[in-house]
Design goal:
The structure is a single chain. By secondary structure, the chain is an alpha+beta fold. The protein has one domain (3-11, 18-25, 38-311, 325-337). It is built from five helices and 13 strands. The strands form two sheets. Strands 1, 5, 6, 7, 8, 9, 10, 11, 12 and 13 form a ten-stranded antiparallel sheet that branches. A three-stranded antiparallel sheet has the order 2-4-3. A hairpin with a 2-residue loop joins β6 and β7 (205-210). It is globular and about 65 Å long.
Length: 358
């Protein structure tokens, strides 16, 4: 099977809180990290998590089948990087392209309709991520195998339709309602491109803006877990119904009632608990736990590095000039008029779990 057909599908109005106040406590030593690091505070005394951050890397939610280890040595991380599908894609497309008919026919022989997703459009990073100074093969740290423990219902809920003849069967990203990668969460995720986040804090709320389709979460802040209250269960929300509070140097966010059409990591009855803290000037330490007895056999979770980004977020213009869905539907109607079946082709999307080395 051709390399480019092996990349799999995984998954603006900005409602921002009040303008962020200036940081008032500077780190004593910027080179320190972890317990030795003096964590900055906002002017109102809570951990300062603001700025642009990214989880761009080859590390994905689930562990690659090429290793059983969570923590990798320098040599093991380099070996997995060499065998990663994205590395192979970069190598395959290195150098000038041939545009003669023979070369074009050979390139298009696999009839992959997503050949437009060449590496020019990809920004997945070029290495595995370091979390707390350790190379990680997956964001998931439990269960020990680094895989999501789906139940039968969870598998069914994450099986995508191959139907291309009805707009109601096409996923939300094609209507620019939520992103391909599910980067906004809950849980935060990374994909083929657009893995940057912006965090803005005010005394009463935290805003997390995701570059991919500009999904945004505005999280109200309460004094403690005891005061956390969610909205009516009959009103699900894109990105879930989140409430946050601070525990020492950590922002804790509890999210429930994610919109069922979002295909997030929780059903309407599930819960995600996230914890954000500073590891160093250049890295946020992000922890998450997913609890949903409908979709999973057991609770699962992990850790992620959100690294400081020198680049701001760029506008994701999803609809402008996008004729994909009208073209899909027009093609389906033409096939029907001719009495021909609707083919289902393999395609490349902004996937999150890349099948290394297949």
């Amino acid at each position: 099977m051709k390399l480019m057909s092996r990349l799999l599908l995984a998954g603006m109005i900005i409602a921002a809180p009040a303008a962020a106040a200036q940081q008032t406590t500077a780190p004593a030593e910027a080179s320190k990290e972890g317990a030795a690091y003096t964590k900055p505070k906002t002017s109102w005394g809570v951990p300062d998590l603001q700025g642009f951050w990214t989880n761009t890397s080859f590390t994905s939610m689930q562990r690659t089948p090429l290793t059983t280890k969570l923590v990798l040595s320098e040599e093991e991380a380099a070996s997995l990087t060499r065998r990663n599908t994205y590395t192979a894609a970069y190598a395959e497309e290195a150098g000038a392209s041939k545009v003669d008919k023979e070369s074009s026919d050979k390139l298009l022989a696999d009839k992959n309709p997503a050949r437009g997703y060449n590496t020019f459009w990809m920004d997945p990073g070029k290495a595995y991520a370091k979390v707390k100074g350790e190379y990680r093969s997956s964001w998931i740290t439990f269960p020990a195998n680094g895989r999501i423990p789906y139940s039968e219902a969870g598998i069914a809920a994450n099986t995508r339709s191959g139907n291309f003849d009805d707009y109601e069967a096409r996923p939300l990203p094609e209507r620019c309602l939520m992103s391909f990668t599910g980067g906004a969460g809950p849980v935060m995720n990374n994909g083929m491109y657009n893995n940057t986040y912006q965090i803005v804090q005010s005394p009463n709320s935290v805003m997390i803006l995701t570059e991919m389709i500009h999904d945004v979460r505005v999280i109200p802040i309460v004094k403690s877990a005891a005061e956390a209250k969610h909205g009516p269960s009959g009103i699900p929300k894109w990105g879930g119904d989140a409430v946050g509070w601070y525990e020492g140097d950590t922002l804790v966010v509890e999210t429930v009632n994610s919109h069922p059409k979002q295909r997030s990591f929780i059903s309407p009855g599930g819960k995600v608990t996230e914890r954000y803290s500073r590891w160093s000037d250049g890295q946020l330490f992000y922890e998450f736990k997913v609890e949903d007895s409908k979709l999973y056999k057991e609770a699962w979770g992990g850790e992620m590095a959100l690294n400081h980004s020198a680049e701001p977020l760029y506008e994701y213009a999803c609809h402008e000039g996008n004729y994909a869905l009208p073209g899909i539907l027009a093609g389906a109607r033409k096939l029907e008029a001719e009495g021909r079946p609707h083919p289902v082709e393999k395609a490349i999307f902004a996937g999150v779990d890349v099948p290394d080395g297949e």
